[in-house]
Amino acid sequence: MDVRNCKDCGKLFNYIGGVPLCPTCVKKLDDKFVQVKEYIYDHPKAGVQEVSEENDVTPGQIRKWIREERLAFAEDSPIGLACESCGALIKTGRFCKQCKDKIANNLGNLYKDKVQEPQKRKDFHDRAKMRFLDN
Ligand SMILES: [Zn+2]
Ligand SMILES: [Zn+2]
Q1: How much of the chain is in helix, strand and coil states, percent to nearest 5?
Q2: What pLDDT, on the 0 to 100 scale, is given for residue 117?
Q3: Closest ligand to 15 CA?
Q4: Which ligand approaches the C-alpha of residue 8 most closely?
Q5: What are the angstrom distances between the C-alpha of 74 and each of 10, 13, 37, 40?
Q6: Would the pLDDT of 28 be above 70?
Q7: Closest ligand to 103 CA?
Q8: How far is the CA of 70 from the centre of ligand 2 (A)?
Q9: How far is the CA of 69 from the centre of ligand 2 (A)?
Q10: Global pTM?
Q11: pLDDT (tens digit per residue) in 46-85
Q12: Which one has a higher pLDDT value, 109 or 103?
């Protein structure tokens, strides 16, 4: 059993992985999240500072939710994050659409290389067989 101190209130609790928060504080954070989400829905033009002050959440927590794609913002909202790859302003997640596509393409190419591998080995095998027949 892994017993830890809650990062928020300091109470001991059975740690089961993820963020080191006790069940009470996890619940509190979830309630906060719902509150923030509703606030943004009602105030689509609110900035991070305003959302943070009005809901008693740190701007860091708000940014974390955005990175986790749990919060998303309207196109005309002043809230935005920099794409981790090119720095373009994005509304949610870690990368802009272009960088996401690029990453997806790279992954696709890696996958294709792996698929071609057995094929190459087969050609080699055939060539070896032919050489044997030539003799
Ligand atoms: Zn706690
Ligand atoms: Zn980008």
Answers
A1: 55, 5, 35
A2: 54
A3: 1
A4: 1
A5: 37, 38, 12, 9
A6: yes
A7: 2
A8: 19
A9: 16
A10: 0.66
A11: 999 999 999 999 999 999 999 998 988 888 888 888 999 9
A12: 103
